[in-house]
């Protein structure tokens, strides 16, 4: 297939990828530590690409809402960074952790400062700070996602939030441990309620590809206003590339070559700066919490189109 130019439709390449995925179903399993996610059919597959002008191409289950989970960490980071700027980096780092997304192990010897905003500990710090600044971090997130996707029906999945809350001991441990270092402002139960609600957002590949477009537009929102400076948009893309898929970030950069962020609902968002955004969904996960078919599909997309940051 020829390398794509800026006027090319993405539809044929999406259809080719969907056919390939259908022929070779992956081996992944849905997340089961959040019981409400365990029932997902691992064979579901959807993929969407959003052009900078808001045109969306899609295939498979691309209009089916799924649990966004850690994909939301990109948006809360952007919303907080736009408000407090570099002061955020006194509370959370920007280095890959090399550990699983819910690991506690580095926090003690790094004095309660999480390695990066995309592991759970770092995302808890970001949500805490956004909540302090807005009075309603998850509400702020939902309003942003609705505006950017143009979908006013986007909402939280109360069943998923309750299910995670009932099995949330590890996130509670992270929150309390960081609070003991003075790195959490709000009462930990308030923070956890906000965080579980944030993670429970149900949105489709089309919604999430559109909502990610501000990162391909160098910080500009759908309505033309600026959320982030060009430099801040670059920073978030860089952290997605190095930390967005946790202890698999090296392999993801090697195979896909794009800033990307995964969630245990089986979604992955990815950015081609200045060109387009992608969201792929398939609930079968590998042992590091990344969608097996999702990574394969993005790998095929960058191979077939020649679009990557490298
Ligand atoms: O906090 C958790 O464990 C989940 N709500 C989100 C984790 C997640 O999506 C990690 N991504 N692969």
TrEMBL record:
Catalytic activity as recorded in UniProt: L-glutamine + H2O = L-glutamate + NH4(+)
The UniProt record lists the keyword Acetylation: yes
Keyword Hydrolase annotated: yes
Pfam families per UniProt: Glutaminase
UniProt GO MF annotations: glutaminase activity
Positions bound to substrate: 70, 120, 164, 171, 195, 246, 264
Domain of life of the organism encoding this protein: Bacteria
Keywords of the record: Acetylation, Hydrolase
InterPro entries named among the record's database cross-references: Beta-lactam/transpept-like (IPR012338), Glutaminase (IPR015868)
Record EC number: 3.5.1.2
HAMAP family found in the cross-reference section: Glutaminase
Oligomer status and interactors: Homotetramer.
Record-stated family: Belongs to the glutaminase family.
Protein name: Glutaminase
Taxonomy of the source species: Bacteria, Bacillati, Actinomycetota, Actinomycetes, Kitasatosporales
């Amino acid at each position: 297939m020829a390398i794509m130019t800026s006027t090319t439709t993405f539809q044929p390449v999406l259809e080719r990828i969907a056919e390939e995925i259908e022929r070779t179903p992956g081996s992944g399993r849905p997340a089961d530590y959040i019981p409400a996610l365990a029932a997902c059919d691992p064979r579901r597959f959807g993929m969407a690409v959003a052009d900078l002008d808001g045109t969306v191409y899609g295939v498979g289950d691309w209009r089916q809402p799924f649990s966004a989970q850690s994909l939301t960490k990109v948006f809360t980071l952007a919303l907080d960074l736009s408000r407090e700027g570099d002061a955020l980096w006194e509370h959370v780092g920007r280095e890959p952790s090399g550990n699983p997304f819910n690991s506690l192990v580095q926090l003690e010897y790094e004095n309660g400062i999480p390695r990066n905003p995309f592991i759970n500990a770092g995302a808890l710090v970001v949500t805490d700070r956004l909540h302090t600044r807005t009075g309603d971090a998850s509400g702020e997130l939902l309003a942003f996602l609705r505006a950017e996707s143009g979908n006013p029906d986007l909402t939280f999945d109360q069943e998923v939030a309750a299910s995670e809350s009932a099995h949330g001991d590890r996130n509670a441990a992270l929150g309390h441990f960081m609070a003991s270092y003075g790195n959490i402002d709000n009462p930990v139960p308030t923070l956890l309620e906000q965080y579980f609600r944030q993670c429970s957002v149900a949105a489709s590949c089309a919604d999430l590809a559109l909502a990610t477009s501000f990162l391909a537009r160098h910080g500009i929102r759908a309505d033309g206003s600026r959320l982030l400076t060009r430099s801040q948009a670059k920073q978030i893309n860089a952290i997605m590339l190095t930390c967005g898929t946790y202890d698999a970030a090296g392999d993801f950069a090697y195979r896909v070559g794009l800033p990307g962020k995964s969630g245990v609902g089986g979604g992955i968002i990815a950015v081609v700066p200045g060109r387009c955004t992608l969201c792929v969904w398939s609930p079968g996960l590998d042992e590091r919490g990344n969608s097996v078919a999702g990574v394969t599909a993005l790998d095929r997309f960058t191979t077939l189109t020649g679009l990557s940051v490298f």
